[in-house]
Amino acid sequence: MLKKHLPLILILIFTLVIYWPVTQGEYLVGWDDDQQILKNEDVKNLSWRSIQNYFTTYYVASYQPLASLSFGIEYYFFGENPAVQHYTNLLLHLDNVVLVHFLLRRLFDRKEVVFWLVTAVFAFHPLQTELLGWISTRSTLLCVSFFLLSCHAYVRYLSEDQEKGKYLAYCGTAFVLALLTKSMAVTLPLVLLMID
User: Residue 24 gets which letter from DSSP?
Assistant: First the structure.
């Protein structure tokens, strides 16, 4: 079992080592972190009213209630602490690496080189630095997680003979959660069509 997953474990360790320095970063003032977190009273004062506002208000011209909720929860427990928010983003990236790997493994079962190479590129690509260094991009990281979970559920729906409805419901639920995180999730039905 360990031998089978050793390459993934190594990719996760290298990803952690490569991106660990971003956890020492500060808020990027002028790049939405101030408007999304530091000057956002709904984030700074978590309450039922602020949670309602997350789902009815655009912050920084974006509708991303689940990302705003995650900021509110972090602020409630840890205050103004960018390190905690960077750790969360790093954990979400590691989660996404695992989700990418297992999705590719299901899609390209006999082509190990493909899923290991694509997983490594996804994990280490320099473009990930922006997502991990800029706290406000939490919405993208969360959206990718739900997007990938929806793809996983759809692949299970296609491959299972029983309980197909359950996997289709999981797929739809993850799709809605992705939409509540970032509008780029509207592309998911096209991706599912391509997978099909």
Answer: G
Residue 162 neighbours by CB distance under 10 Å:
7
Distance between CA atoms of residues 128 and 172, nearest Å: 27
The whole-angstrom separation of Cα 70 and Cα 52 is 14
| Amino acid identity, position 83 | A
Q: DSSP label at 32?
A: T
Residue by residue, DSSP assigns 116-184 as: HHHHHHHHH-TTHHHHHH-GGGHHHHHHHHHHHHHHHHHHHHHH-SS-HHHHHHHHHHHHHHHHTT-GG
- Rounded Cα distance between 129 and 136, Å, is 13
Q: pTM (2 decimals)?
A: 0.91
Helix 112-124 to helix 82-107 angle, to the nearest 10 degrees? 160
| Tens digits of residue pLDDT in 87-145 | 999 999 999 999 999 999 888 877 777 888 899 999 998 888 888 888 888 999 999 99
Closest CA to 145 of 103, 113, 106, 112: 103
Query: What are the structure tokens assigned to 47, written together?
Result: 């309450």
Residue 95 dihedral angles phi and psi, to the nearest 5°: -60, -45
